[in-house]
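stage 2 :: seqdesign
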């Protein structure tokens, strides 16, 4: 028994994956290709992708949002969990990275579910609000520039339905958010968001020590 979360050693992590991870072959291929990149740390972990799939299936999500696509592993994970008529509106600004994702989405036969919009996410999200799509999405995943998280949050909160879910990635930022003598733009933005969410009465909240910190927000 333990009254706090276990520390995950490499040995325990390997065991966790060996008895839990169910990864589609195209997911594994995309993850392997991304790991060769210098920016590979931007990719979510496979167990986080599977957790997102679990949540999407659990809530019966059909319309979802993604802010920050990188090479497309998170979008692929969610798309595989959506029904045949499900949709992701995926926001990013990089043709270079998302082109890797496009190839794998095609291979997994889920490209038709992913509407990739290459533009600043704020513009895409605001356009959806302007088009009166507020309250029509079930799920949103935010994993982009940290100083932009609060703005993405406010727009996603408008766009998801009551009972809908928002996930934030990197909210523990490798533990740096807890180091009082450490200040930089990313740390400050994440600390401010975490503090704001704690007292935000519009939502229910859970911050999990999964991967680099995953915050779940349910619209009340």
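stage 2 :: out
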């Amino acid at each position: 028994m333990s009254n706090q979360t276990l520390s995950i050693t490499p040995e325990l992590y390997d065991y966790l994956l060996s008895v839990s991870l169910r990864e589609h072959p195209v997911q594994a291929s995309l993850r392997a290709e991304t790991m060769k990149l210098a920016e590979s740390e931007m990719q979510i972990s496979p167990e986080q992708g599977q957790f997102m799939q679990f949540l999407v299936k659990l809530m019966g999500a059909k319309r979802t949002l993604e802010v920050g696509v990188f090479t497309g592993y998170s979008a692929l994970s969610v798309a595989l969990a959506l029904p045949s008529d499900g949709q992701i509106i995926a926001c990013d600004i990089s043709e270079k990275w998302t082109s890797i994702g496009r190839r794998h989405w095609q291979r997994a036969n889920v490209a038709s579910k992913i509407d990739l919009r290459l533009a600043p996410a704020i513009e895409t999200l605001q356009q959806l609000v302007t088009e009166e799509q507020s309250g029509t999405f079930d799920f949103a995943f935010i994993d982009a520039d940290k100083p932009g998280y609060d703005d993405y949050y406010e727009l996603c909160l408008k766009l998801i339905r009551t009972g809908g879910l928002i996930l934030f990635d990197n909210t523990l930022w490798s533990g740096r958010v807890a180091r009082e003598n450490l200040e930089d733009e990313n740390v400050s933005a994440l600390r401010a968001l975490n503090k704001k969410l704690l007292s935000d009465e519009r939502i229910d909240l859970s911050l999990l020590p999964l991967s680099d910190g995953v915050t779940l927000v349910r619209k009340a």
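stage 3 :: structure notes
- The two ends are 33 Å apart (CA to CA).
- The mean pLDDT is 96.
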